From TrEMBL, chains A, B:
Taxonomic lineage: Bacteria, Pseudomonadati, Pseudomonadota, Alphaproteobacteria, Sphingomonadales
Pathway connected to this protein: Amino-acid biosynthesis; L-tyrosine biosynthesis; (4-hydroxyphenyl)pyruvate from prephenate (NAD(+) route): step 1/1
Gene Ontology terms: biological process: tyrosine biosynthetic process
Protein name: prephenate dehydrogenase
Stretches the record annotates as Disordered: 290-310
Record Pfam families: PDH_C, PDH_N
Reactions catalysed: prephenate + NAD(+) = 3-(4-hydroxyphenyl)pyruvate + CO2 + NADH
Keywords: Amino-acid biosynthesis, Aromatic amino acid biosynthesis, NAD, Oxidoreductase, Tyrosine biosynthesis
Domain of life assignment: Bacteria
């Protein structure tokens, strides 16, 4: 492992999980960390998310071989600005943001002369903050790296080793293509989930209490995603606007077609779509990207949480 | 328990789960069952879903105190027609369909003079067929009954006892209101999930393989719902058309507002929605309607299925 010392800027779900994963799977690597929120720094220290929680970002990166920004993508330019003066010349600069084109541009502009390799581990939960991370978050998950033509191959290999060391599989991708792929596999699903939860909360003829009581009909699945960190997701939509609007356009076209099928009682069109969509879940399960048990193996179907009827 | 003998017509996920739940929680109640598919009847018999799998629906209902139709809502009229001649006069007729107005009308038209009380247990998984059911499916879940002004109170109380006996909580509701509530808590979520999975499968610039690989970013959640039974869901949309179109209209209005916010970089509007939607998930968990663990407690976050990094 060429990387001996990693600095983690931002100690929430992702930053904390990287720190814990390094401690568990890469014991030879030292970690330092910083968070702009003093309260988060205290909580990160109590959980031992990194070897040393530093009082300033400059201090955290002073001897780093790798600096990973784990802050909302909109906060990256200011965070990069903070460390410019104290960054070792050889350090690799990376991040974990969900959009890659604007992040790469911002990091390269803020830290000229440094090796910038944007990264995106496609992993997470709906929780956020320094209590949310755990060491196994990246197991079986893909981490996408988006180098450009100037990226030194050695640095790319070092970053790849680091991520593989904490359990991820690596894919190298063009930043623009990453942003398009993630728009459909992550950003649009989140936008839809946030929206339907908002719609359901604001109805006059169906109460909020009814929405909650009967959520097991499907709605509750969407509320998980819609409980994700608001700042992080606001920034994702502002920073991947083009790809999100493109994919949203395609989704609404398809939804309009379904609306027309329902209005005209076109059962065949509905049945055709509903049949085609089954295969993709089977493929996701075969590829190890989801739990194979019904209902994600939720506790109430495995006997846990079962009350005895009177 | 006034109901001593229950006949279950249709032995898939719901019918099978009722049979297994009766066996476990109401051992004094005898069950018979029928499925129009001879292969399903054989598999239902092998799993012991009901006390007796009958070769005809007439035979199954011959001595029943309660008949529950557990078939797609579009198949209810024909199934009701089949048993008309052999139904005991005192038997309560019910079902488990996800829309209630058209079902109630169809059952009352097909079986005049009988006590019809439509029911909807808000519970299920994405699986279907006689292998999918399990006894604890209704634990902690709500079962909505939609009697009308002619329903005898005794019969309503008997049906309530039956459902409570297999673990459900009961709510009495007007059929039209049920259809509106379920449109938002179940039908629109399913329609959206089916649609986004269809959209993602059909892109030219993002491959199906990429969609599968990076599905952990949120998309995989939608594929679970989109793996639900196509026939059942086609029928739901055809039979609850008015309420579904009404709620779909509200959702698309809200989605258009989000689209505009993204296009105009209105971070405040995005942040405002994303903040409001967190509360409803907390309420759902407090009400015992979902797993409190992050990511539904999926196996890959609980240590199961974790591979050791090399």
């Amino acid at each position: 492992m060429a990387i001996k010392r990693a600095a983690i800027i931002g100690l929430g779900l992702l930053g904390g999980s990287i720190g814990l994963a390094v401690k568990e799977f890469l014991p030879g690597v030292t970690t330092t960390g910083f968070d702009i929120d003093p309260g988060v720094r205290v909580r990160a220290g109590l959980r031992g998310l990194v070897g040393e929680v530093c009082g300033t970002a400059e201090h955290a990166v002073a001897d780093a071989d790798l600096v990973i920004f784990c802050v909302p993508v909109g906060a990256i330019p200011a965070a990069a600005e903070q460390i410019r003066g104290s960054l070792p010349p050889h350090a690799i600069i990376s991040d974990v943001g969900s959009s890659k084109q604007t992040v790469g541009e911002a990091l390269r502009a803020a830290l000229p002369g440094h090796t910038v390799i944007p990264a995106h581990p496609v992993a997470g939960t709906e929780r956020s903050g320094p209590e949310a991370g755990f060491a196994s978050l990246f197991q079986h998950r893909w981490c996408i790296l988006t180098p450009d033509e100037d990226t030194p191959p050695d640095a790319l290999a070092d970053l790849q080793d680091f991520w593989e060391g904490i359990g991820a599989r690596i894919e190298i991708m063009d930043a623009a293509h990453h942003d398009l792929v993630l728009a459909v596999t992550s950003h649009i699903p989140h936008l839809i989930a946030y929206t339907i939860v908002g719609t359901a909360s604001d109805l006059e003829d169906v109460t909020r209490s009814e929405v909650i009581k009967y959520s097991a009909g499907g709605f509750r699945d969407f509320t998980r995603i819609a409980a994700s960190d608001p700042t992080m997701w606001r920034d994702v939509f502002l920073h991947n606007r083009g790809a999100v609007l493109e994919m949203l356009g395609r989704f609404t076209e398809d939804l309009t077609a379904m609306q027309r099928a329902i209005r005209s009682s076109d059962g065949e069109a509905l049945f055709d779509l509903f049949t085609r969509t089954r295969d993709i879940r089977n493929s996701i399960i075969e590829m190890g990207q989801d739990d194979a048990r019904p209902d994600f193996g939720r506790a109430d179907h495995t006997g846990q949480g079962t009350k005895e009827p009177s």
